[in-house]
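User: Could you write out the 3D structure of this protein bound to adenosine-5'-diphosphate? I've included everything you need below.
Assistant: Certainly. Input first, then the structure.
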Amino acid sequence: MTQEIRILVIDDNPSDRALVIRQLQREFSQLHIQEIREPEGLAQAVAEGKFDLVITDYQLRWSNGLEVLHTIKQRYPNCPVIMFTNTGSEEIAVEAMKSGLDDYVLKLPNRYIRIPAAVKVALERAEIKRRATLLEIRLQGLLNQLKVGIFRAYSDGSFIECNRAFLELLGVDSLTQASSMNLLNIQEYYRMLQKQPSPQQQEDELQLHRADGTLIWVALSTTLNQIEGEQVLDGLIEDITARKQTDIELQQLNQTLEERVKERTAQLEAANRDLAETNKKLELANQDLEAFAYSISHDLQEPLRAIQGFSSVLLENQREQFNLERQQNYLQYIITSTQQADKLIQDLLTYSRLSRTEMPLQPINLSLLIAEILRQLELEFRQQQASVQVAEPLAEVMGNRTVLIQVITNLLTNAIKFVAPGVPPQVQVWTEKKNELIRLWVVDNGIGIEAKYQKNIFNVFERLHGSEVYPGTGIGLAIVRKGVERMGGQVGVESQPRQGSQFWIDLPIATDINQ
Ligand code: ADP
């Protein structure tokens, strides 16, 4: 030992003290001895406390070793005390050790030699004890600083020990309160752990009702242990409310995120579908446009070629022999061809306008409208010796007046045009209600249409006959279909060759638009 050792030597007998000191000096190089001969000296020394160890005789004139021991231990519980005893007082010394005496040495000449060893052991033990105490204090401090609650409990649910965090977590003031409130249901955990194979350990996350009734989430880890032959339950408990809250929020966030992704995906898919559909329509429209352009050029070529041909012939004839009658015929051909080209262009313009212009709808009384149309067609009907029968009253529909006039006019003119030669055309018109739609029928006694052509005749330039037999542009029914579709309806035909045709158009039933 390099540090100075300070020892109180309490003995009445100067020669005994000298013997003790000599033994000590032999062993310890740095030594400070304070000799105590009377009570005052002891009182002063105890008050000052400048010693590390006490060696006292049992038999003192003014006191005895036991009293000295009590005085010292009362003030300095960790200070080692060694006592000299006579052979007779050996039992007393043993008794004294129970009260905290660290060692005793028999007061015999050959025993003095034992003193340094006893001092050494006592000091070492005191040092170990001091360190252990320090360690315990530090450990307790650490445990108290921890946010984690630590506890040990008996199987009946009573707590043996715990740290401060545990009490705070439960919201109680003492172990006794914690035991009596049974907030953790220790017996239940004890029973569960007992059924488990070794290591009897369990981790749980649960909601805990604290002493004040508030609810918190905790992570609880429990273990069964054996302490001095008795089974105890050791536990760690941690407040995880904040984490749980974050978990829940995260879960909710994920859910809304998932829903949003789903929603967006659905929107995207719908948009893609729309796009694909639009593309398809565009492609079809493109194809239609090509066919359309081809047909226009083809159909316009015919009258133009005629105009060109007859004009050249007229020029030639001017130089040659003049034949007035023939020239007039040629001029008539030219005029007819010009009219044909003009009609074609007019029809095309009407058709294309149908796609582009706005089409406001209004309730239309078909009886009144058809009566007006028939008045306009009166001359044509008379020339053809055609008769028409209208089953009054006709229904009211939602439609666009201008377009509807065009549609019905086309159907009626076709009805009196496509008849076998010499047959006076007979037309019948009536309406019928079909759910929320009105079906208008235009029925003739004409040449009829083969089933295979019935769909195509509504396309532009679809004609089933040459223009010498039945003149026309092939656009009339296309105008009928486009017009009706733009008014929210549909068209169709039922027919058999030579059995007449029954054309129909469906339009929404009239509603009071002021409502
Ligand atoms: P257009 O009358 O100028 O020839 P449309 O588009 O009106 O052209 O008619 C297309 C074709 O449908 C006609 O060429 C004709 O072959 C047929 N068609 C139309 N209406 C009738 C009808 N009432 N009876 C028989 N065939 C018809």
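The domain at 5-142 is CATH 3.40.50.2300 (Rossmann fold).
User: Perfect, thank you.
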